[in-house]
Amino acid sequence: MRTAMETQPQQAEELPTTPCSVVWSRGHAYVLEGFRARWVGRDDRGRPHAITGAEMQRQGWTLTRTV
Length: 67
What we know:
The protein is an alpha+beta fold.
């Protein structure tokens, strides 16, 4: 049996700043695009989606995929 701590990953204090870093948000992977400093991923329909670091902080993110 898993405890609450095991099922909910800890969120790091700040977003990674290394280009090509990957984070997860709302079930989708986002990659940091270094030359524009934005996070790029796909929406629920598979279309490209880009957001800023501030938007990523507001919507929440983790370093690991959550189910």
